[in-house]
């Protein structure tokens, strides 16, 4: 996936990461375009990289929990998906993101699918899960 140009170009995510790092979106964008990595920027700002990872993944985690709550995912599936997303974001932290695009409404390949096919949300954003939701008694519910 890294070769596919993972991007941090969702405006909301960019703002949240900038806030976590104590800087403006413009300053963050400029540093990323200059070739600095998120790890390098976080270190310079005295922010633990894991806090930036958590910031990036917070909406993903929230979405996964909604999927679990309504029976679209099991806890184990949600944990696996979050673990996989965490690995990808941790890898992204040490890669230059100088192909950053910040146009309103842009979402990078990590979130929409890109080379991963179903995206970071495992299809929740692209047509739902592969299995039907079930009720507590094992019957299908739509």
List the helices and strands and how they pair.
Layout: H1 11-21, H2 25-33, H3 38-45, H4 49-69, H5 75-93, H6 109-112
Helix pairs in contact: 1-2, 1-4, 4-5
Task: Kindly describe this structure.
The protein is an all-alpha fold and 142 residues long. The protein has one domain. 51% of the residues lie in helices and 0% in strands. It is built from 6 helices and no strands. Helix 1 crosses helix 2 and helix 1 packs across helix 4.
Task: Write a concise keyword list for the protein shown above.
single chain, 142 residues, mainly alpha, 6 helices
Distance between the termini: 34 Å
Stretches where pLDDT is under 50 for at least 5 consecutive residues are 1-7, 102-130
**Which sequence of SSEs, written as H and E, runs from N to C?**
HHHHHH
Gross geometry:
elongated
Q: How many strand segments?
A: 0
